[in-house]
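Re: the request from the purification team.
They wanted to know what the chain is likely to look like in 3D before they choose a buffer screen. I agreed to run a prediction and write the result into the notebook, where they can find it.
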Amino acid sequence: MIQIQGFVFNFASENTYILYNENKNAWLIDPGNMNKEETEILANFIQEKELNINKILLTHAHIDHVLGLQWTSKKFKVPVFMHKDEKEILDMFQISGLRFGFSLNHIYADIEYIGENDELELDGEKFRIYHVPGHSPGSLAYYNENHKFIISGDVLFEGSVGRTDLFKGNYGQLIQSIKTKILVLDPDTKVFSGHGNPTTIGLEKENNPFFR
């Protein structure tokens, strides 16, 4: 059985997730911890649950989703999975920091690229990868059909969609990504977004103003 634990971190109230199972194997998704207090919250949960972090996954590489990436990569010494089109975004980490008044170091991590229709497994639980560009060129969503949930990053939110006024954002592309790859899933599928509350595919098809 997969458990999902969310944490709200940093200046953007970003959702960091840990997926874990009864074997204590776990994935860390979008580490956004940006200070000592947030890092301790994350580290303490992992320690208390005795979790073995064996993958770090990125939905995309905007600054608020990777502020803790260097710490997590160094501590757990595991690969970081993301889409190849996010390399340029990740390489802009320091520049992005300056825009928010932060002095940041370049991120060094063991990066592995994944994309559309790839699959990852957590002890036999399969996750299908969807490439859903528009908010960011290499945005990914991670879908588990067995437990009916998707980690959508900043693509689809409760009652909204990701912004497209950032570098290489594209509104038409975003709406097309959501309509053809996410909203076609089972209505009961739970959506864990990069910000805000969880929702479901059914609720968003019925109530999201962008798709009425």
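For the purification team: The first strand starts at residue 3 and ends at 9.
Please add any questions underneath this entry.
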